[in-house]
Amino acid sequence: MQIEKAERYVLGQLESRLDRTLFYHGIHHTLDVVQASAEIAALEGITDGESLALLRTAAFYHDSGFMATYQGHEEAGCTLARAVLPGFGYSTAQIDTICGMIMATRIPQSPKNALERIICDADLDYLGRDDFESIAATLFEELKARDMIDDIPAWDAVQVKFLEAHCYWTSSQQTRRDTAKQRHLLQLKNTARAL
Length: 195
What we know:
By secondary structure, the protein is an all-alpha fold. The protein is built from nine helices and no strands. The protein has one domain: Hypothetical protein af1432. The protein has helices at residues 3-17, 27-43, 49-61, 73-84, 92-104, 114-123, 132-145, 152-165, 171-194. The radius of gyration is 17 Å and the shape is globular.
């Protein structure tokens, strides 16, 4: 596997082809998920070189489908992965594993193995971080630009519902992020009650 070439390829594509109104799902989010997935894998004790390489590749490609479509971007990301990764020395089985991880991030998340649980948790790592509000604001702007949300009160209601339904899949994320996530949920509920 020519991992670095596969990464450089997709980053170049994302840089030139992503819609500039993807305020949340931009390259910064992809790089955030790459970083978070490596952190979580380490906390979860994943040391196998191939597993870590496939996880990293999946993190780089997990939102690449946004170059083609907003709805159903996971399938589009898998289509891209299947088209380009063989040229970087990835086997069909390795690409199947990568696509399993990409598809697991679709909401509602449905991870079936340890690597899929890790990338799901990395994709929504921000829910339990101190930068939650600033990152959530970028998602609001992205959805508003697509007429998918009307205003802040509606957005707060969506976030409350989402946070109430969400659970981290790995024990390390449950330990590391659940307390802050619950604090964000409480703040959103208090804001909604104050209106």
